[in-house]
Write a structure and sequence with these properties.
Length: about 350
């Protein structure tokens, strides 16, 4: 967070960030009107860009906009937000932001921060679990480094009766992610670990089959990474259709009899209604699944679903490494870009 007073000098330093944000917003809005797919690709490319991250994060007003979607930079701020959401009848998934670390020291530092988060969840009594990314724990450095760090998190979480979910990242990491998941769950007996399925990947239908067989704890998302058409659906309509198919499989009688618990993670009302219809048609109780929505987006819808008796969990990210997460949220639904632009000028 940039807390430096605005002076002539600081305004000069912020000029590149302002120029980048205004250029991206104007260009993005034009392309949103004429080519949403192109805009999504642009935003996903920028989410991985080091120079873009430096420009945006050095510009104070950018944080003031992004903070609508991020619960702060410290664990104390995140726990406070979790408590406020719990008071409204909403459960929480907490995510200490960070990914693709390149040094073992960074991976171990992330592990220590998440251990602290688990301690604070236990001490505060908030209704929350933790989501982690293997690239944050060092999987791109060495698979065993991520394995050891995740094992430490699961051990601490289990001692508190808490769960940890492994977020899914780009397709190149899917096999490694599942290998580590299976090793810890089946090889080492950690029953407090869950995974994520991305509907836009072609392979997900096969992955769902074996996850059902083992009674997994699964979050279903559409997918937010830039992927080639050889591995993922390019058209929204195809991704939506896959999302509904996978949700129905994960809510099937077979899945529920094996202990599968599904988290339907979407803000898309068409997807929410499709799940509601399927559940009603098959007499599936509301406590057999949950809806998950992102912090700061469609707050009224979150509370509305909870008031209707559905279990609703809010995905709450926090930390200083917010830029990639923020850009992917814009890419997931490019209409959010207009929301970003209007709030940017208010900031």
């Amino acid at each position: 967070m940039n807390k430096t007073p605005v002076t002539a000098t600081s305004r000069t330093r912020q000029t590149p960030g302002l120029f980048f944000l205004l250029s991206a917003a104007i260009t993005g809005y034009v392309f949103y009107r004429y080519s949403e797919g192109w805009l999504r690709s642009l935003l996903l490319s920028l989410s991985r860009s080091t120079w873009a991250r430096r420009m945006v994060t050095s510009f104070g007003p950018a944080w003031r906009v992004a903070s609508r979607f991020i619960a702060g930079e410290s664990v104390e701020e995140a726990i406070a937000v979790a408590g406020q959401l719990n008071a409204k009848g909403l459960k929480v998934a907490l995510d200490y932001l960070g990914e693709s670390v390149t040094q073992a020291e960074e991976a171990n530092a992330a592990r220590d921060q998440i251990l602290l988060l688990l301690d604070r969840i236990h001490e505060s009594g908030v209704d929350a679990y933790v989501s982690v990314k293997l690239s944050q724990l060092g999987v791109k450095i060495a698979e065993n480094l991520a394995l050891e760090n995740l094992r430490a998190l699961l051990t601490r979480a289990r001692s508190y009766g808490l769960r940890v979910r492994i977020d899914m990242e780009e397709s190149a990491l899917v096999d490694t992610t599942f290998d580590i998941y299976r090793r810890l769950r089946h090889g080492e007996g950690f029953d407090n670990v869950g995974v994520v399925i991305q509907a836009y990947l072609y392979r997900s239908e096969e992955d769902v089959r074996w996850l059902i067989e083992e009674g997994a704890w699964v979050r279903l998302v559409k997918g937010a990474y830039k992927e080639p058409p050889t591995v993922a659906y390019a058209r929204k309509a195809d991704t939506d259709a896959a999302f509904i198919r996978l949700a129905e499989q994960l809510l099937s009688e077979q899945a529920r009899s094996r202990g599968v618990h599904l988290a339907v993670a979407t803000h898309d009302d068409a997807m929410i209604r499709a799940v509601q219809r399927y559940a009603k048609m098959h007499h599936i109780p509301q406590d057999a699944y949950e809806f998950q929505l992102l912090y700061g987006i469609r707050r009224e819808r979150q509370e509305q679903l909870a008031s209707q008796g559905y279990c609703v969990r809010i995905y709450v990210p926090y930390g200083t490494a917010w830029y990639p997460y923020f850009m992917r949220r814009l890419a997931e639904r490019p209409a959010n870009l207009w929301f970003f632009v209007t709030n940017f000028f208010r900031a």
